[in-house]
Amino acid sequence: MTDMFVSLGSWNWLIFGFILMALEVMAPGIFLFWLGLAALLVGLISFTVAVSWQIQLVMFAVFAAAAVPVWRRLARPKPDASASPFLNRRTEALLGREFTLEKPIIDGSGTVRIGDTVWRVAGPDTPAGTRVKVVQVDGANLTVAAA
Fold first, then answer.
1. Measured between alpha carbons, how far is 12 from 125 in angstroms, rounded to an integer?
2. How deeply is 106 buried, as exposed, middle or buried, from its count of CB atoms within 10 A (0-12, 13-18, 19+)?
3. What is the Cα–Cα distance from 53 to 8, expressed in whole angstroms?
C-alpha cells in the first residue's frame, strides 16, 4: 500500500483530478468537481515543487476541505435589491402615484381602488372621481392630496 503512495506523482494527481471531474459530468452533484479541483491543484503544485507523498495527501485534504466554503460562497445567490425594492413594503410603492377616488372623501375619509384592492384614504374633502396623489403612507392608510 505504501508503494502506491510513494509512486504518487504529478501525473497521477492530474489524471485523478480529471477522472473525478468527468464523473461529476456523468453524475452531477457539485461534489466530485471540488475533489477533482483539489487533485488538480496538488498535481500542479507537485510539478513545480518536489514534495513527499505524505505532504501531497495533506495538501489534497486541505484543498478538498477548503473547497466546501468556497463553493458555498460562490453558489449563494446574491440578493438583488433592484429587482423588487418594495418587497414586503407594498404601500411605499404607492407614494407619489395618482389614482381616482372611488368614494368621496367626507370628513377626512374616503376610498380609492388600486388594482383589485380598495384602500382607505385620508385627506381634505373631495368628490368621487377626482384624481388624487398619495403623499403619505401609514400602514394600510394612505394620505392623499389633490393631483
1. 84
2. exposed
3. 6
Own/partner long-range contacts of 142-145 (Cβ < 8 Å, ≥24 apart): 142/91, 142/94, 142/112, 144/99, 144/105, 144/112
Residue 122: count other Cβ atoms within 10 Å of its Cβ. Answer: 15
As a whole number of angstroms, the distance between CA 94 and CA 90 comes to 7
With beta carbons less than 8 A apart as the criterion, state whether 134 and 97 touch: yes
Read off the pLDDT of residues 7-26 as tens digits, 9 standing for 90 and up: 667 888 899 899 999 988 88
Instruction: Map grid coordinates 483530478 to a residue.
Output: 17
Provide the whole-model pTM.
Answer: 0.50
| pLDDT digits 0-9 by tens, 108-139 | 899 999 888 899 999 999 999 999 999 998 88
